Hints:
Blueprint: E1 2-6, H1 13-26, E2 31-35, H2 41-51, H3 60-84, E3 88-92, H4 95-106, H5 110-121, E4 127-132, H6 135-145, H7 157-173, E5 178-182, H8 187-202
Parallel strand pairs: 1-3, 1-4, 2-3, 4-5
Helix pairs in contact: 1-8, 2-3, 3-4, 3-5, 4-5, 4-7, 6-7
Amino acid sequence: MFISFEGIDGSGKSTQARLLSEQLSALGRDVILTREPGGSPGAEEIRRLVLEGESDRWSATTELLLFTAARRDHLERTILPALNDGKIVITDRFADSSRIYQGLGRAELGTLVDRLHELVIGREPDLTILVDMDPEVGLSRALGRQDGEDRFEGFGLEMQQRMREGFLKLAEANANRFCIVDGNRPIEFVKAEILSIVQERLS
Length: 203
């Protein structure tokens, strides 16, 4: 099974992806935990380019091309080999982030996002967990990390609000693949709900 986690910055999706990986491993499942941008040596190099620096460092189109290149390398070198070996792959972000961040938030590039995905990636997760979070709380959390990877947070609260709305609409349009989880609750509550959802799918 190929599982992706999506959500706005600071939603807690990275924490929940890690917790799910730990729980499934404890249950005897063979799990790979990865992330985007990143997840392979080449993609990790691109990660530094797109997540660090000033918010106007790249145009939205250039940014999309960089993300797509990173995703292709990630798919080739990490995701597909693991799936072919029968492992569960959990990724912190995948193509839906490009649909929202570049397709909706940074510019109206939705058609280009979809075309590039069709031509270069051609794979969707089996299950996408959307960790929904209040944008103001999420932004505050994200800025508080101070890890240097805050280029997108630099676009401000208005963009975070647009991102949340975009993710919710995307989930509604792809209800067979998405499950929305309320990330405003305590971590343990969210963790338990996600494990229940995944175990039901795996069974």
